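Appendix B, Record 12. Input sequence as logged:
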Amino acid sequence: MKFVAFERAKQGTGASRRLRNTGKTPGIVYGGEGQPQLIELDHNALWHALKKEAFHSSIMDMEVAGNTSKVLLRDVQLHPYKQQVLHIDFQRVDAKTKLHMKLPIHYVKAEESQAVKFENCVVNHVMSELDISCLPGDLPEFIEIDLSGMKKGMSLHLNEVTLPKGVTAVTRGKPNPVLVSMVVTGGEEAVEAGAEAAAAAGAAPAAEAKAAPAKDAKAAPAKDAKAPAAKSAKK
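Logged structural output:
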């Protein structure tokens, strides 16, 4: 992907505000052997570019004043409620230096799995992106994971996935996190749960009806026993 940026001479809050009022977005390029460079981009073109996944996860060619350099998107500052990009940061890419970034995960062929086709399951995406480390030449746009072999109750862990050549996962905390799992919705388990609930609801009135006569039978003798005692007292 290639895009064009322009050199920016002025910096500061006031200069950035005036730039935004003219339909431009201020930005900066840093890293590599060069000094940080102030840039500006056309806001509308940038807004549409940000909707593309590749703009966030791939190495791009940025042209500034006739010179082209390899860069990665590093940060975007958005207005809290307006559709406006306030500032954008890019990092120069060195071919010999490893990158550390997050890549989106694409789960494919879930509809072909036994879990989805025959076992009333849906896919629970525990992770939608993965921290990776690699050289710029090995950087993929995304990580693709085939779910066609998934069955009911299965979970897919990181160590069960083959990453692209040269790509290493960077994990923090759990060394082997769950990426995706198959969750049952409806089907046999829902029917069984409904049957159990109905049986429990029907058992309660039956138990109450059975207990009621016994209670009345015990109460009657106690009442009759008091009557003779009261009569003898009068005599």
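The chain is about 30% helix and 35% strand.
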